[in-house]
Amino acid sequence: MANSNKLKDSFKKTTYKLSQHGPRNASVLKEAFEAVDGDLESDIYGDGAVIENFQDKIAAFLGKETAVFFPSGTMAQQAALRIWADEKGNKKIAYHPLSHLEIHEQNALKELQSMEPLLLGTAERLLTMDDIRNLSEPVSCILIELPQREIGGQLPSFAELEEISAYCRNNGIRLHLDGARLWEVTPYYQKSEKEICALFDSVYVSFYKGLGGIAGAILAGGEDFTAEAKIWKRRYGGDLISLYPYIVSADYYFDKRIGKMGEYYEAAKDLAHRFNACDGVRTVPEVPVSNMFHVYFEKSAEAIEPILAKIHAETGVGCSGYLQEKPGGACGFELSVGDAVAEIPVASLDQVFEKLGE
Amino acid sequence: MANSNKLKDSFKKTTYKLSQHGPRNASVLKEAFEAVDGDLESDIYGDGAVIENFQDKIAAFLGKETAVFFPSGTMAQQAALRIWADEKGNKKIAYHPLSHLEIHEQNALKELQSMEPLLLGTAERLLTMDDIRNLSEPVSCILIELPQREIGGQLPSFAELEEISAYCRNNGIRLHLDGARLWEVTPYYQKSEKEICALFDSVYVSFYKGLGGIAGAILAGGEDFTAEAKIWKRRYGGDLISLYPYIVSADYYFDKRIGKMGEYYEAAKDLAHRFNACDGVRTVPEVPVSNMFHVYFEKSAEAIEPILAKIHAETGVGCSGYLQEKPGGACGFELSVGDAVAEIPVASLDQVFEKLGE
User: Fold this and answer.
1) pLDDT digits 0-9 by tens, A54-63
2) What's the order of all strands across the beta sheet hosting B281-284?
3) Testing the interface with A: which of B8, B21, B24 to mutate, by most A Cβ within 10 A?
4) Under 8 Å CB-to-CB from B100, ≥6 apart: which residues?
5) Tens digits of residue pLDDT in A81-124
């Protein structure tokens, strides 16, 4: 990333941002704890009202029997896959080539779990029912990420998901949902979290992406599954004496933002439309299906960085703090809409796209 | 544990406590963040001033090159042992039969790491230089816990530690310190943390036991070691986007209490002396070598629980919320001295031991 510090600095100095909910700083924690009584008892190694109530609340919301709070999705999903692998006595599982487990976890599934992941389909597109049907070997579990983040947050149709779910059930394959951004896809599907989760045997959801909490994840499923998950949480060193800093803030931002996903989705579609109206700029997907999409420029990062930095300085609106080089001399960045976009004055936003159009 | 809810309830209702620093509740977090500016930027996946500065501070304090903040000691120590096992190409490591890794981690070393732990010595006593000399097979690493918590917080002499350290260096064995309660043993050894850590290749310390933070651990060692540790932290799902709730509080309570370990140690010796003066009561060790010890009663939990519950109600001083059955119809509990003991009015404390003496 050429000149990335210059771009990063210009982004940091902007008053407004296209992405996210605002700065990730201590005020996120302070706001969540402001109304919390100091007498609120800590959870203790997974027990206590603060963790149990939240687990019950999210389990009910997702329509699952039980749920376990984890410090991270990385830990939660490795646990889930191992549980299903053990159940079937088969260490082979399958997922998209750009799954978080494949590209962001330092090969943990192999190094820690001796699992054998098979890759479904190809990196640049969604995995399909056909990819699953054509699997060369039996797998214990398939993981599907909704939306598939690394390709701009794309989604299969709900009908295809239903088909995949039925196929897995008929063929003794467990289906796990990487729902890192599950909340964010309900407006597009016009389905509740419950309706989506009903297609999966186990579900991971996150509290710091669309919801804007500090960190933390929930793994939900049947009673036997979560009992096993608690053992794996202990093994991974995730069964902390106190997880309440994450739980209390997850709960606070869940209540604050769970009803705003439609608003973020509409704003994402509007922004993508504006980007696509600029010469040499396009978004993936062209029409977003969640609050996120990727923005691609036909030119290199070196060419685009000064343009973005200038827009940052002149409009006070931050588009991105980085640009990633792409094949063919192109570049791009990821955009996830949250509370921040609504704070941008209309005139400033118009100015951004006028300048980008030039 | 017979009647344990009655004892637990009577303990909870007491105004004062022999153990710890006070209740584990949200005020612990609120106190730590009170003076923190809301603009303080979060760490992001292990980077940023808030995590890097604290890692540097603790590395320097322990006299190690570098340090990594982990959410838990469980995760940190499994990472450490794996790194040394990989270095030596030998999955055999050795530790005390009551090591945390052996009894509190759901067999994680075997299930996650395929490691082969050898047990040094026997459960009821400290491991010794002789146990190490008599190891039946070569090991890559030996883990020593100072103090050995499960036997009341006992310590080898510093001279024996030096001998073990020299032996390991001469025999190509890495020596890892489980320093969950390292801060607490410096007054007895009359050595600094640096002097103790100099005997070990890698060191884990905790921030919620003697120091009373919320959770969190540091793993310290050479540069190559901590670079590897960061990879394992990612694999374990411990590389959270934000660990600052634990880091800020760890730093706050480190500064607040690191100078008070001598005070806790003296109070522990005084309390143990008072327990030992009561008929049918003894402590292990008889004279504490840190802020902790175990209290044993000659009679069963069933016999002792009503006595303790009565003392709780009559004196307002909590001794313990539980009693663990011990062999031979005895029972006992663990006591770790912190800030709480200094708040007990002298007359109330005297009353506790008068009643216990009866």
Assistant:
1) 999 999 999 9
2) B281-284, B292-297, B330-336, B324-326
3) B24
4) B73, B74, B77, B145, B149, B178, B180
5) 999 999 999 999 999 999 999 999 999 999 999 999 999 999 99
Whether A86 has its CB under 8 Å from any CB of chain B: the answer is no
The shortest C-alpha distance from A243 to chain B (Å) reads 8
pLDDT digits (tens, 9 = 90+) for A159-185: 999 999 999 999 999 999 999 999 999
Quick one: tokens of A251? 């709960």
DSSP for B251-298, written as a single string: HHHHHHHGGGHHHHHHHHHHHHHHHHTSTTEEEESSS-SSSEEEEEES
Residue A29 falls inside a structural domain: no
Residue A223 CB coordination number (10 Å): 10
Kindly indicate the confidence band of residue A1, based on its pLDDT and cuts at 50, 70 and 90: very low
Cα-Cα-Cα-Cα dihedral of A82, A85, A87, A88, to 10°? 180
- Residue B210: pLDDT band by 50, 70, 90 thresholds? very high
pLDDT at A344 over 80: yes
Closest CA to A72 of B266, B45, B165, B210: B45
Show the tokens assigned to B203: 């060191």
Are B110 and B73 within one domain?
A: yes
Chain B, residues 217-256, CB within 8 A of chain A, namely 231, 234-246, 248
Tell whether A268 lies on the interface with B, counting CB pairs under 8 A: no
A198: which strand partners? none
The answer to whether the Cβ–Cβ distance between B40 and A26 falls below 8 Å is: yes
Question: With a CB-CB cutoff of 8 Å, which residues 43-82 of chain A face chain B?
Answer: 44, 70-76, 78
CB atoms closer than 10 angstroms to residue B193 = 22
The residue range of the domain holding B189 is: 43-241
Nearest-CB residue to B215 (from A114, A235, A241) = A241
State whether B198 and B285 are in the same domain: no
Residue B191's pLDDT is: 98
B188 at the A interface (CB within 8 A)?
Answer: no
Does residue B120 have a pLDDT over 50?
A: yes
CA distance B228 to B231: 5
Cα separation, A319 vs B272, whole angstroms: 64
- Within a domain: B32: no
Q: Which residues contact B239 (CB under 8 A, 6 or more apart)?
A: A72, A74, B45, B46, B230, B233
How many domains, chain A? 2
* Shared domain check, B264 and B237: no
